[in-house]
Write a structure and sequence with these properties.
Layout (H helix, E strand, L loop, with lengths): L53 H37 L2
């Protein structure tokens, strides 16, 4: 008994979004379906990855740490004001 080839009228064979994701069990990096193309900048040239020096990467990490501490300080301040409001106004 021969299987008939199934054909859907909606499927025209085009790939809208590739579902090959690095790290998935079915991913095959050797797939020739969509070759990787280098990134290009707005002026049409290829972009190179940014290389940071030790001082720049330390400054980057310090800035990220300061931003995270600022957000944590704001959350702690709001929590303190909420507790103060509950103790003095709401439960009084």
């Amino acid at each position: 008994m021969k299987r008939r080839k199934r054909f859907d009228d909606d499927d025209d064979g085009r790939v809208i979004a590739r579902m090959d994701v690095d790290g998935m069990p079915w991913y095959d990096g050797r797939s020739p379906s969509a070759p990787e193309q280098p990134e290009q900048s707005a002026d049409g040239g290829e972009r190179e990855p940014v290389k940071l020096t030790k001082e720049e990467s330390r400054a980057y990490a310090a800035g990220a740490l300061k931003a995270a501490l600022l957000v944590a300080l704001v959350f702690a301040g709001v929590f303190f004001l909420f507790i103060l409001f509950c103790a003095e106004v709401w439960f009084a």
